[in-house]
Task: inverse folding
């Protein structure tokens, strides 16, 4: 029996059936009711994967085969970043879109992800040349209707309705676009896998292939990602590890404002936010978020206070409201929107123990006006002041702004970048600022507004609720 030459050998394919968790990507040889990885119920779906039995050779072409000294790396792109001209978007991206980067933008359905990226492509197309918008959910005619409503006019903006990765890459090689938008990654598939679009395997492999294409061609790729009912981006968690930048587009559909927040950014800060306003013609950036969030603040209202928060490198003034009413049920209610509920519970306990403000028998509601979420402890002082103001039914001076962290002993601790917060308050017309005493000593001279340093929680309550 003769030996078949290796050149004449055909590649055999094996079909394997596995069960993958659609929430975290955990794989099992059999179906499971509960995923061992993320402990979610009824998320295991069957997938048929076809894989080659030949030796793998799928290393990405953009990866180098040998280490190089830093000074020896000379193939860096001439233009490191693309400025879109949308200041809020460029700020969140860290100063523009990096060449060869992959950005994932997630958000609730209808929040404005496609509208934002279409406008981004329009700005890039006006400045640099051809750009490509690929949609797996809308036809070309539907996208044109939306573009006309938004006033999109870039002549080199190309629209493609496609879900095949191979076809998208072929179009990109033909057009050589300066940027590509994929809307959405959950609708894309590659012919290398036999599973359905949106499955864990397809999302993972398509995202990895798009990353390789972006690095090899130095073309920035922006991906739209759907989110689950819990607010996380749908698909395997590895998707967020593959991409360079992860942005979340947040906001309430009943309100016109939208907030673009960076939660991962290899080329910039992870705490930056951009504020937009939705209107009939698309999205409009808000260059002064403090004025936007304080526009409808009630005058002389008990329980209302302005706090100075820091989002990335930007100080923002927001209104924080509290409502304290006697409870008529056995257990008092605590409802919190925009801040950490556990943090509020801790501060209420400090109020009772250290300041003698007994609120345990009252229903307490705390809300950050404008829908923005604040996590930093610098707003502790504002929370306790708002609760005390509502409890005593005494309004706080509307020209007063507060910030500072409150400890378990009732002490007021210093926070970072107080000068930026004070400067923002002065710019917005505030005349008095309550802040930690250690911060006030450092800023004693040269400040445009009155600074009052406080050391303990009791000092704050005496000053703001007289």
Result:
């Amino acid at each position: 029996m003769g030996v078949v030459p290796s050149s004449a050998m055909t590649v055999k394919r094996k079909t394997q059936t596995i069960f993958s968790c659609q929430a975290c990507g955990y794989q099992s040889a059999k179906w499971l009711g509960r995923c061992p990885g993320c402990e979610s119920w009824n998320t295991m779906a069957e997938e048929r994967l076809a894989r080659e039995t030949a030796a793998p050779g799928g290393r990405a072409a953009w990866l180098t085969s040998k280490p190089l000294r830093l000074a020896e790396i000379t193939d860096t792109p001439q233009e490191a970043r693309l400025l879109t001209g949308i200041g809020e978007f460029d700020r969140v991206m860290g100063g523009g879109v990096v060449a060869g980067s992959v950005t994932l933008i997630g958000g609730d359905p209808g929040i404005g992800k496609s509208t934002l990226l279409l406008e981004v492509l329009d700005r890039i197309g006006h400045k640099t040349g051809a750009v490509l918008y690929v949609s797996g959910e809308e036809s070309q005619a539907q996208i044109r209707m939306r573009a006309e409503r938004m006033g999109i006019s870039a002549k080199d903006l190309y629209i493609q309705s496609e879900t095949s990765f191979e076809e998208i890459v072929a179009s990109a090689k033909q057009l050589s676009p300066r940027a590509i938008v994929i809307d959405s990654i959950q609708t894309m598939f590659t012919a290398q896998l036999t599973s359905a679009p949106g499955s864990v395997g397809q999302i993972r492999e398509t995202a990895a292939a798009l990353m390789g294409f972006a690095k090899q061609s130095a073309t920035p790729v922006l991906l739209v990602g759907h989110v689950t009912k819990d607010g996380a981006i749908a698909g395997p968690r590895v998707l967020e590890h593959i991409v360079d930048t992860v942005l979340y587009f947040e906001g309430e559909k009943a309100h016109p404002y939208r907030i673009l927040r960076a939660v991962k950014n290899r080329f910039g800060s992870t705490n930056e936010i951009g504020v937009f306003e939705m209107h009939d013609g698309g999205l409009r950036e808000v260059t002064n978020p403090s004025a936007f969030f304080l526009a409808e603040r009630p005058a002389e209202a008990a329980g209302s206070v302005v706090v100075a928060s820091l989002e990335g490198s930007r100080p923002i003034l927001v209104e924080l409201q509290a409502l304290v009413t006697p409870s008529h049920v056995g257990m008092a209610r605590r409802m919190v929107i925009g801040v950490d509920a556990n943090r509020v519970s801790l501060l209420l306990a400090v109020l009772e123990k250290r300041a003698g403000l007994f609120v345990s028998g009252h229903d307490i509601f705390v809300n950050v006006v404008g829908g923005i979420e604040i996590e930093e402890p610098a707003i502790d002082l504002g929370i306790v002041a708002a609760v005390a103001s509502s409890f005593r039914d005494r309004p706080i001076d509307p020209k007063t702004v507060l910030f500072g962290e409150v400890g378990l002993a009732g002490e007021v601790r210093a926070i970072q970048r107080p000068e930026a917060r004070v400067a923002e308050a002065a710019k917005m017309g505030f005349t008095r600022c309550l802040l930690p005493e250690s911060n006030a000593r450092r800023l004693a001279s040269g400040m445009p507004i009155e600074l009052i340093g406080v050391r303990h929680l009791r000092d704050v309550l005496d000053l703001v609720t007289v």
Summary: The chain has twelve helices and 23 strands.
